């Protein structure tokens, strides 16, 4: 932003515009968005509760699923309350430090979720390609260490982010084009050279999302090679254990890659497309993941039906 003498100054706050061009409709659009958020939270909490209470589900695949559900709750919660504040109460201001915290949370949690998806792919690879070694390779203590590694990796990759943002002077504007703070959006407001931020963003995407998606693809090529040598019955069983994870991978990576591409090549800051894609990226995966696993995973589906059956029985007079 510009100081009183026209000099560069640091930003003390930003203004989140919400949905450009739809300001008058934001109040009503908040209701379905809030409903989706509640569905995401309740659905993922249900997954966590079922896996925690059912001892038969204390296996690596379901523990990784719990990690995924927990991250989905945190990712959606890092942005949705502020979005509802904007849409319902027109509270568009966010302090600079709060923006940094939100930015760090969103990007680091995304990195953690990518690592968990990679760990889930590794679990499926060992279970299908080396079934006799699965119990010894993926022990529960080792699964816990993988979860901790995902947290450390996501946080470490984003640790330089606040430093790279705080060093920038903001003299053009303090209006962000999204409903929450994103690195790609904030750095474009700077009136200094942002090459360091651009290079840092590319390094993070390549070393995290790019590497993870490549390793996931490679693991499924190995799985496919193994499955094609099995009987039809064994093939169907193997594919059924993978389909939920494949859906989760596409649900996470497709919006992320699409959003990154739009930010890299879009020239218009007032465009509605990046904003919609950003909201889809943070809200749709947390909503769809528990639905996909609840429908496609037999063990979880049975527990959900049993939980509902018990609830309806106990509520009857």
TrEMBL record:
Could you tell me the superkingdom of the organism this chain comes from?
Eukaryota
- Keyword terms, alphabetized: Cell membrane, G-protein coupled receptor, Membrane, Olfaction, Receptor, Sensory transduction, Transducer, Transmembrane, Transmembrane helix
GO CC, alphabetical: plasma membrane
Q: Which organism is it from?
A: Sciurus carolinensis (Eastern gray squirrel)
Question: Which InterPro entries does the record cross-reference, listed alphabetically?
Answer: GPCR_Rhodpsn, GPCR_Rhodpsn_7TM, Olfact_rcpt, OR51/52/56-like
| Family (UniProt) | Belongs to the G-protein coupled receptor 1 family.
Tell me a GO biological process for this protein.
cellular response to lipid
Entry protein name: Olfactory receptor
Give the CDD domains listed for this entry. Answer: 7tmA_OR51-like (cd15222)
């Amino acid at each position: 932003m510009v100081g009183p003498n026209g000099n560069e100054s640091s930003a003390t706050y930003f203004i989140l515009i919400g949905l450009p061009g739809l300001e008058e409709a934001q109040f009503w659009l908040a209701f379905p968005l809030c409903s989706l958020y509640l569905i995401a939270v309740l659905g993922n909490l249900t997954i966590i509760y079922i896996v925690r209470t059912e001892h038969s589900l204390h296996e690596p695949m379901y523990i990784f699923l719990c990690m995924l559900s927990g991250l989905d709750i945190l990712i959606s919660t890092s942005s949705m309350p502020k979005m509802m504040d904007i849409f319902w109460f027109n509270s568009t201001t966010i302090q600079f430090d709060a923006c940094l915290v939100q930015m760090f949370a969103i990007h680091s949690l995304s990195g953690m979720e990518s690592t968990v998806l990679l760990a889930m792919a590794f679990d499926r690879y060992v279970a299908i390609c080396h079934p006799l070694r699965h119990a010894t390779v993926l022990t529960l203590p080792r699964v816990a260490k993988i979860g901790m590694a995902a947290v450390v990796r996501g946080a470490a990759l984003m640790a330089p982010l606040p430093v790279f943002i705080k060093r920038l002077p903001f003299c053009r504007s303090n209006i962000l084009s999204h409903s929450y703070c994103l690195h790609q959006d904030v750095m474009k407001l700077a009136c200094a050279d942002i090459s360091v931020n651009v290079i840092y963003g590319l390094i993070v995407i390549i070393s995290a999302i790019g590497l993870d998606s490549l390793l996931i693809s490679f693991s499924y090529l190995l799985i496919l090679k193994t499955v094609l040598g099995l009987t039809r019955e064994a093939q169907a069983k193997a594919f059924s254990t993978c389909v939920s994870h494949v859906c989760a991978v596409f649900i996470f990576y497709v919006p992320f890659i699409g959003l990154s591409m739009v930010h890299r090549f879009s020239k218009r800051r007032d465009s509605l497309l990046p904003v919609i894609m950003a909201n889809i990226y943070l809200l749709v995966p947390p909503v769809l993941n528990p639905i996909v696993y609840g429908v496609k995973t037999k063990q979880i589906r049975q527990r959900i039906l049993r939980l509902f059956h018990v609830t309806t029985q106990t509520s009857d007079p």
